[in-house]
Specification:
The structure is a homodimer of 336-residue chains.
Chain A: H1 11-23, E1 27-30, E2 33-39, E3 49-56, E4 73-79, H2 85-95, E5 101-106, H3 109-126, E6 130-135, H4 156-168, H5 173-185, E7 187-193, E8 213-216, E9 227-230, H6 234-248, E10 256-263, H7 269-285, E11 289-290, E12 294-296, E13 306-313, H8 316-323, E14 327-328, E15 331-332
Parallel strand pairs in A: 3-4, 3-5, 5-6, 10-11, 10-12
Antiparallel strand pairs in A: 1-2, 2-4, 7-8, 7-13, 8-9, 10-13, 14-15
Chain lengths: 336, 336
């Protein structure tokens, strides 16, 4: 296995050491704990806190969105594994400014169980109010009639952005949670994978895809997708993703959306742009306009080749929150 | 071969169509020519123009640096191939505001030959003054006694940034060229490769590296490096790169540098940070401080796995120019 790492068991700690070495003026560890990252950016006094958590191996998700107008804190576990409830509770305590904390994360069993316990703990022990909002944007992970089983993938970045802006505007915990839920009702994602990733401590590819095949709808940890097909062109991939997403969330002429073409790790930026070009053409044909496209790597799966498409349907509120200033070491609202 | 593309011969045109579909408010084609990208950002009247050119397949290099405080224009060829002299001349004409154009590009035979011809043409036909500055930052590509043979790699991004800032400050063509040369005297890069890239129209990997080997000093088109070694740890890679660079450009206690850890395509951001962490420790031990680190993908080789390290030694002038505001669809000076 070829990875630029030292001992696999130090992978997450050393990643975090790199983040602190590079950006220690912008982010910090909570009490020297290499699993909990907090923002150093200036913010509004009394701002509602926003936190997330999840497994490592997806940078810039999750740690990369700790910043201004984004997240206040993030707890990470080992690669593709949930962090513990006690670390989540420590983070929530550190991110509460007296007005409560939004807990915004992807719908995975371990993360959900641990965050539920953490929220109970800080409620009972510290009297901290929390609201939990789960990201379930992956349309390939369950049919529409079982939406609550869907997993959270790249669309969570839009949810972080929208909730972060609402909190910066001085909204209450309930209002920030409502903004996140409103965003998520209008966000859908689906991806394709061309090759596997390798978890450092496993040392072998998680799965395999034949040299002439592509997996439609695969999850970001290698969860099985909808189907395996013979290799498709970029245009066919764009058409498939747009079709599946718009079947689930219909769009009509006059609608405005933001579009994210997110690389999973090994796919060149040129290829993201080739796919984006076709997505843009398809939406334009439907009379749908695109605001603030996001093209690049926002939520990865180590060195997996492939990409995902996220569409967020906008209204005045979501457009305003999306376009507000935000920055972290890994994300800048370039429209400003 | 697995690439998210359509016909290989349309790879570059469709990449450019994607750029225009996404960022058509910020950049534009010259007269609809899919090989010439110009900036739409506001700039100082009479500003000295800055242009580059080179083969496709390296995004964000080269097209990604057309923006504000960076490049005014960029011409690209096919993947890993130089564009023509006539397109370069068209671009230079479009980027001259009456005060001349800096032609700043990597030291490759085809690009050099074509830019020399283009500069002669615009001098004779249009009376446009140009200065050529070649980037030769790759220490692995030739020994110190043959520095002029060295190739240009990721260090060119720092040169674009410094020259772009000098031009925005109203400097003359000679002053902007001098700033670029001064930056380049203080910039060194070296990389390692773990796997090959695949040129779309070739359809086969350019070279191969055994599953347990790493190539030290490989070029961004797969040019042979200094040596092939058994797979190394991230710390050993960092130590090797810092040693080779500082042998060529000695650093001493009290020096300040900027450091770029640049992913070549398929290497996860976590691994960039693990390498950065060790580079940071080594420089700190030497008494050298780091300003404005750049960690991520700045100059790639399609889906090649590996990374490069660039060190730019700073003085007051270079630090000021580096930290000035700059933005493009692919680069933001996040320190602002």
């Amino acid at each position: 296995m070829k990875k630029l790492m030292n001992q696999p068991e130090h992978f997450v700690k050393e990643t975090m050491e790199g983040i602190i070495a590079a950006y220690g003026d912008k982010v910090r560890l909570l009490n020297g704990d290499y699993r909990i990252l907090l923002s150093n950016y200036e913010t509004r006094p009394g701002k509602v806190g926003i936190v997330t958590a999840g497994g490592s191996g997806h940078l810039p998700v999750f740690l990369g969105y700790v910043g201004q107008g984004l997240l206040d804190g993030c707890t990470v576990g080992n690669v593709f594994a949930s962090p513990s409830a006690s670390k989540m509770a420590d983070m929530i305590r550190a991110c509460d400014r007296g007005n409560g904390v939004l807990v915004l994360f992807g719908n995975y069993g371990g993360d959900r169980m641990n965050f539920e316990l953490a929220c109970e703990t800080v409620d009972m022990e510290d009297d901290i109010r929390t609201e939990m909002v789960l990201v379930k944007d992956d349309v390939a992970s369950a049919p529409a009639c079982e939406k609550d089983r869907r997993r959270g993938v790249a669309g969570m970045v839009y949810a972080f952005k929208v909730a972060g802006a609402a909190a910066e505007n001085g909204k209450t915990l309930e209002e920030v949670a409502a903004a996140a839920r409103h965003a998520l009702e209008n966000i859908r994602t689906m991806g394709v994978a061309l090759s596997s990733c390798t978890v450092p401590q496993v040392g072998e590819p998680t799965f395999s895809i034949a040299e002439d095949e592509i997996e439609i709808g695969m999850g970001i940890h290698g969860e099985p997708g909808l189907e395996v097909r013979k290799m498709m062109t970029a245009d066919q991939v764009a058409e498939t993703l747009v079709q599946k997403i718009t079947e689930d969330m219909p769009l009509e002429s006059g609608d405005e959306v933001s579009v994210m073409v997110n690389g999973l790790g090994a796919t060149p930026l040129e290829e993201h742009l080739i796919v984006y070009r076709r997505v843009h053409a398809l939406l334009t044909q439907m009379g749908v306009s695109i605001f603030m496209p996001h093209i690049g790597e926002y939520a990865t799966s180590m060195e997996m080749a492939g990409l995902s498409l996220t569409i967020m349907k906008l209204d005045g509120e979501l457009k305003g929150l999306l376009s507000q200033t935000a920055r972290s070491p890994f994300y800048t609202n370039y429209n400003k």
